Each structure stands twice: as structure tokens, then as C-alpha cells.
Amino acid sequence: MDTPAADLVLYNANILTMSPRRPTAELVAARDGEIVWVGTNDDFGLFKGRSRLINCEGKTLIPGFNDAHIHIMAYASNLLSLDCSPDSAASIPEIQDKIGQAVQRTPRGMWIKGAGYNEFYLAEHRHPNRRDLDQVAPYHPVKLTHRSLHACVLNSFGLSLAGITVETPDPPGGLIDRELGTGEPSGLLFGMNSYLNEKVIPPLSEKELRQGIKLVNRSLLSSGITSVQDATVRNSFEQWETFRKFKESGEFAPRISMVLGLHALDDFKGRGINYGYGDNGLRLGAVKFTLDETRGSLNPSQEELNDGVLRAHQAGFQVAIHAVEESTVEAAAIALENCLRRSPKGDRRHRLEHCSVCPPTLLRRLKAVKALVVTQPAFIYYSGERYLSDVPEARLPWLYRTRSFVKSGLKPAASSDCPVVPCNPLVGVYAAVTRKAEGGQILSPEQVISPEEALRMYTLAGAYASFEEQLKGSIEAGKLADMVLLSADPSGVAPERIKDIQVEKTIVGGEVVWER
Ligand SMILES: [Zn+2]
């Protein structure tokens, strides 16, 4: 057989290809960003002297990780904010300390932003409130964002800039927490993050944006992530242009698939931009719907959801519905059933993002409409302890299911929802394989999957979720040369060690873009 010329050869590797045709190999060669040869060390002589050679010293090479649901801009802004995550601030005084220090170096009247706090893991087991923040920052507006991104706390200065007073009614889909007795806002706000970011807080400056993107790029590449799917419902043509700029300048190496909000659909269509438009660096993905339940009612309503989903489907788009609670998962199933009844044509691989609580009947209905699930195994690790304490026992077996999704053919793809939790895919693989929370508690052990299945969720299944499985997700000739070299084999080490595996090299399009 003829061997093609190559510009990069990785050999002496334990290659897990994710391709059923040839599950393992030792050598892979790439040219012009594409894989051209997958074989054994015996093929080494074919390429010697003609290309860059990397001896992998027996380490494990897998397809680059694909994080099927993250929020790039929110992550950038998180990385520029004070780190108030549980590892970094364990109590309200520790958060106050961080804000107090920022006050010293920030001109009066300028926003101070903190991110990543989680009241469950704070010593006080409660959300901070405006008074806690006022104590250290009376003359600066402060916004402290919850790790879930669905809640935040403003101090009094921040509330006044946002125009939120005792008289302000709860906005649609949002909730203003109030002090008992006075009815004054406590500072804690639910479901209002997007509103605040769009209308109240000044956008990142050009310099901040560039700095944030640089930090996100480094974080993703050092985690072995070569493709991301940005799942931000606010995304519009303007966001597309921002991503395009950072792709063209080479400042952001991972490939991006970007969802858009329904509000932006007509704008994209008007510009002649349809589903899948773009190139291997930046591609337009699904129309995203965020479905939640505030105080017992669905937002948007079932009718609005049905209409929106049908509209996006008929416009030729995949849809991605954020659904966490059982009621919202059911509403998403109803919308997809309605959509396929009215317009049965076309395999659109409609997605459920999170699908956190999924009882057996709903799982069957999702299967019947050929829905695909994008789940977050790392939530088990980072929030498992909280789930065990807050989620009713009867629902626990249906919470963040993995094995049931894999076995039922819902083709689950994995993601971090970063910045909701850190983006390291190996923590997700660990959690999917062990179902263990950070403190060692085990959630629904019957939901464990094998390391191979977990790796597939982070690679090939991710590519499938954005209709790109012909391009990437496995190490096969003809696919993009996106790979990651790991210090150990996740399917070969004791499960306990998976989360400690290091990324040694990250390769995008045949270029080593990060190494340890
Ligand atoms: Zn998300």
C-alpha cells in the first residue's frame, strides 16, 4: 500500500482511536491538518526523516476532547473575576476579604465582580446578601455570581444601579429575593444574570475581552479540549463575529460550534446563514431554548416553546433545549413530539441540554423522538454532595443518568457547562466511571459506565451532537488531526486515578498547541 507524505508522526503511542473498525493503534501520521495514516510502530520506517516525529513513550493518545456545552464569554468573564469558588473561598468572610482587597485597587464607582460561589459549600450554608457585601464595598457596585450562573448577589450600590427597589416586581423568569418583614431586596437575584449583563453592567473592554479569551484558550487547551460547543442562548450574529475575529487571529485554537438564540434566527437567515454554516474552525449550530420553572410555571410557556421549536426545525435547524427539572424535561419532550408530528422530515438530532431528572417514561418518549442528550458527568463530582442532601430520594436514581442514556441509545455527549464547573474532561470521565462526588459519596452506582464509554461521550459523541462525526471525534485517516496525549490510559489505571491523569500534549489540526 502507498504511504502518503506526512508532516507530523506520533509513534510509540497507546492509541485509543474510538473507531470501531480499528480500536487501537501505535502510530498516527498527519498532513495539512488531517490524519493520513493510522498503524503500528512497524510503519515507522515509511515516514522517518520526512516529518516531525514525536515519540509518545508508550503514553495514551486519544482524539481531542469535545466539550459539547460550555459558555466561552461567561468563562472569560469568570476568569477575569475574583475567584469565589468553594476551593478558593470557604466562607462569607473569605469572600468579603477578596472583595475588600479588590476595593483597594479599584476606583470608586467601578464594578467589582466575583464568581463561582456556591452557598451549599460555604461554612454558613447560606447565600451572601447585600449587607455582607456593603460592609466591605460601600462605594463600589458589586456583583457576585453563583456557580450555577442562575443566581447572583448585588450589594446596595449594585441594586441601585440596576434600579431594583422594594417596589420592583419580579421580572418574567426571574425572582428578587426579599428580606422578611421589610420586603426590601436582599441582594440575591435568580434568573436575572443575562439581564444584568446586558443592561446594567458595562461590557468587557476590548483589552479585557482579549485577555479573557486568552485565559479561556489556555485553560481549554491545557485540559486537552480541541472542540467546544458554545451553548449560550444570548448568542447572535454579533457574537458570531467576535468568535470569528478570535479564530482568524489565531488567539483561540479550539474549534467552536456556536448555538444561537431564537431571537437571532431571522437575522442569520436574512444573511443567508443556515445551520452548519462556517468552516472547521467556527460553525453555526443549534437554536437554543432555555426552559425553566420559576414558581411553578414554565418559562417560556408550553405553547411558546412548541411554536419556537417548530419554527427552528422548519428553518432547517437542530434545536437544543435546556431542561433540568422533570417538568421541563417533559415539556421539552412534548415540544419535540409536537414538532415531529407537524413536520416529520429530516434527522435533526434535537438535543436536550442537561436532562437532569429523567424518569423511565420520559426516557422512552425522548428515545421515540430520537432526541440526543448532552449531559454533565462532572456535576456528580462537584455537586454530588448537594444532590444527596437536596434531591428527593425517589428522584435520585433518575438524576444525571449515564448508563441508562448510553444503553437506551440517546447518544449522550458529555460537557462541563463551564464555567458552572471546571472544564477538565478527565474529572467528568472519572465521575461517569465511578459516580463519585468530591467527598467520596456515591450516587446511583447502577449508572456507572466504562472508561471507554465515557471517553466516547467526550469525543465521538460530541462530534455527533453537532453533525461533525465525519470530521472529528476519532483517530482515523481522513479526519482532522485533533488529538490529546495523556500521561496514563483512563481505561488502564485504577478508576480512582482517572481524575489525576495529566494532559501532556494537545494537538489541533496537526499542530502541537499546548504541552506540559
Ligand atoms: Zn449551560
List keywords for this structure.
32% helix, eight-stranded parallel sheet, 23% strand, 516 residues, alpha/beta, 26 strands, binds zinc ion, 17 helices
**Looking at the structure, what is the overall shape?**
globular
Oligomer: single chain
> What is the residue-mean pLDDT, rounded to a whole number?
95
Count the helices. How many? 17
Q: Report the end-to-end length measured between terminal Cα atoms.
A: 36 Å
How many strands, which pairing sense, and closed or not: the largest β-sheet? 8 strands, parallel
The helicity comes to 25-40%
Would you summarize the structure shown here?
Helices cover 32% and strands 23% of the residues.
Can you tell me about this structure?
With 516 residues, this protein is an alpha/beta fold. The strands form five sheets. An eight-stranded parallel β-sheet has the order 8-15-16-17-20-21-22-23. It has a six-stranded mixed β-sheet with strand order 3-2-7-24-25-26, with helices on one face. The longest helix has 17 residues, at 206-222. The protein is globular, with a radius of gyration of 23 Å. The two termini are 36 Å apart. The structure holds zinc ion (ZN). Zinc ion (ZN) is lined by residues 69, 71, 231, 417. The site of zinc ion has 4 residues, from loops.
